[in-house]
Amino acid sequence: MSRAQQLHELLVEGSELNIVCHNNPDPDCLASALALGRIAANAGIDEQHILYSGDISHQQNRAFVNLLDIDLKPFDPTALQDRAADALLAFVDHSVPGANNNVPEGTSVDIVIDHHPAEDIGAQFVDHREEVGAAATILTEYVRTLDIDPDAVLATALLFAIRRDTLNFLRGATREEYDAAGYLHDHADHDLLRQLSTPSVTGATLDAISTAIDNRTTKAAVLISHVGRTTERDAVPQAADYLATLEGVETTIVFGIVHDTVHLSARSPDPRIHVGDVLRETFKDVGSAGGHHDVAGGEIPLGLFADYTTDDEQLLDIVEQVITARLLAGLDLADDSEE
Questions:
Q1: Structural domain boundaries of the chain?
Q2: What is the CATH number of domain 204-330?
Q3: Which segments constitute the DHHA1 domain (predicted)?
Q4: Are 22 and 93 in contact (CB under 8 A)?
């Protein structure tokens, strides 16, 4: 029995499906949730909910939700306590309660479909494939295996998610991504794909990227920078993507303060550096971080710096000094840097 069929067998026993996205969900998570909902409907589950915590702030993510008219609901952790015995709980594009989600640690999860590095995954159904480039690739495989005809919305969502998570097949793409994209191509709305690929950019995002350009520090082929304080959470990874194109740079790490949290984003095609491991080991005692060898991220509660100062400018200086020093140490680089 294929994994898709095993999933179907589990779903036919359920009366309700709650699909919990990771915090601040991206297109890969959202498209995967949409596809899992269609698979559940095919198995006879009429009541499905796609739940999320955090923000959908990246302009491409907002366009994705709005243009595809995805029905999202805020996640309420207390609601899980009262769910019926046959109400299933699913994770897509993440895998462990309490890790990049607001699900209480120790919560029983029924379905996990993910491609990110993780340990101690527990669920009735687990499909964890670190080798594939996107969770949407796995869900596309299920749709094909179960002979579910994807409509234009679902096909567009999955195809865009695969393209986005692999940087148009330039990062972490495998043969499975190309195969999935080839299947989805004839079903997708290509005008809608173009709209999703070219969303407008906010002034705050441009300001944050400009700040990161001004604040960049390099040592050998490593660039570290920050965007200061911003309301645009996704400006941090966007700044990392932009600075990663700088000539001579192999590894880029950008951080910034968003509300009460320090966000980090890293990029590195350098095979000698696993940025997911670097961030995890560097900040495991103060926050949560990790990811793949070439793309990673993390979050550190700003409260850890509260004892330093209540002045925002001084706080920014302290955060910059502490985060940069930790990163340089984690990368085995000398503290002296060249700009």
A1: 3-197, 204-330
A2: 3.10.310.30
A3: 222-323
A4: yes
Give the other-Cβ count within 10 Å of 76's Cβ: 11
Please, what is the end-to-end C-alpha distance for the chain in angstroms? Answer: 57
Encoded amino acid at 214, one letter: D
pLDDT score of 308 more than 60: no
CA dist., res. 152 & res. 135, Å (int): 19
CA atoms within 13 A on the CB side of 310: 0
Predicted local confidence at residue 339, as pLDDT: 47
> Under CATH, to which class is 3-197 assigned?
alpha beta
> Both tokens of residue 289?
């971080």
Residue type, 146: L
Query: Residues in the chain, how many?
Result: 339
Q: Which two tokens stand for residue 212?
A: 């990161």
Decide: 62 and 205 in contact? Cβ < 8 Å.
no
Average pLDDT, the chain: 91
Q: Tell me how far apart the alpha carbons of residues 61 and 81 are, in angstroms, rounded to a whole number.
A: 30
